[in-house]
Design a protein that fits this description.
Strands 5-6-7-3-8-9 form a 6-stranded mixed β-sheet, with helices on both faces. A 3-stranded antiparallel β-sheet has the order 2-1-4, with helices on one face. The chain has a 3-stranded antiparallel β-sheet with strand order 11-10-12, covered by helices on one side. It is α/β, with parallel strands linked by helices. The chain binds adenosine-5'-triphosphate and magnesium ion.
């Protein structure tokens, strides 16, 4: 039984398409107020999982609970409390940005202000543009705006920032963080691991329909633990990378030796593994 603190609960979820078992017994739980990321290579089963939770696809077996409801029945009450950015969309084309937002706002009991959402998603200059004239990234911003217009408490974002320019991505991150500040729950998929690292409280890494690892970025060994990577260019200009759990001593020795030779250690850096490093290690083919 899901507690009131649980927004999403998934247990032994399976989804087959004919002979293909795309989701093979997935289990996870998302707390209210949490940003949870699903990561994994193309075809891992992320969209299948998310769209089952949204009520857009039927599961083959397993149990799922979304805000206490079974999304399979597409209950009205659930729809009003959930906002969705699909991986691919493309309805509305002749209407203007502000019109399409105002149109969808009326389906929700307590919608946000249209102009506020337009501003939040960086569409102010395109407010009166027909949606078919938007660029790819602008259309994606409109998708995000549509997910926010109903002021939902749970938001599904399937690759929400694909096609965004770097500044737009950063500002979308701000918007998504502001949702967490408001106590909303977010389920996010993304191939941008810096995005997941910047936003997600916890992530699950999925491959072949199974969860390979789950936890906060810190628990997955990102940016913490004992692993440090010291990189520099040697006298011949070749890149050298050394992993260590004691960078202070290593740097002392390296820089001492270099100074003794009267040299500079060029391109010197000390880094910790990023989520991308951990992800690539976990999902690498054996
Ligand atoms: N409607 C469908 N009919 C048949 N096979 C499907 C269908 N939808 C997805 N699949 C297959 O299920 C597997 C998982 O697809 P899914 O879209 O869930 O992956 P994903 O993790 O979202 O990938 P991506 O990162 O590319 O979006 C893939 O092998 C895909 O080809
Ligand atoms: Mg997908």
């Amino acid at each position: 039984m899901a507690s009131t603190e649980t927004a999403i609960e998934v247990s032994d979820l399976r989804k087959s398409y004919g002979d293909l078992e795309a989701v093979r017994g997935i289990e996870f739980r998302v707390q209210r107020g949490e940003i949870y990321g699903l990561l994994g290579p193309n075809g891992a089963g992320k969209t299948s999982t998310v769209e089952i939770l949204e009520g857009y696809r039927q599961r083959t077996s397993g149990t799922v609970s979304v805000l206490g409801f079974d999304p399979n029945q597409r209950p009205r009450e659930l729809r009003a409390r959930v906002g969705i950015v699909l991986q691919s969309s493309g309805i509305y084309s002749h209407v203007k940005v502000a019109e399409v937002l105002a149109h969808f706002a009326q389906f929700y009991p307590h919608p946000r202000d249209v102009n506020e959402v337009i501003q939040l998603t960086g569409l102010t200059e395109k407010r009166d543009e027909r949606t078919r004239h938007l660029s790819g990234g602008q259309r994606r911003r409109l998708d995000l705006a549509l997910a926010l217009i109903g002021d939902p408490e749970l938001i599904f974002l399937d690759e929400p920032t694909t096609g965004f320019d770097p500044a737009a991505r950063r500002s979308a991150w701000q918007t998504i963080r502001s949702l967490r500040d408001l106590g909303k729950t977010v389920l996010l998929t993304t191939h941008y691991l810096d995005e997941a690292q910047a936003l997600a409280d916890r992530v699950a890494i999925i491959k072949g329909g199974r969860i390979l690892a789950e936890g906060s970025p810190a628990e997955l060994g990102v940016g913490g633990g004992s692993r440090y990577r010291v990189a520099y260019a040697n006298g011949d200009g070749e890149a050298v990378v050394v992993e260590t759990d004691n960078p202070t001593t290593l740097l002392h020795e390296l820089t001492g030796a270099a100074l003794g030779r009267g040299e500079e250690l060029r391109s010197l850096s000390v880094t910790r593994p990023s989520l991308e490093d951990v992800y690539l290690e976990l999902t690498a083919d054996a």
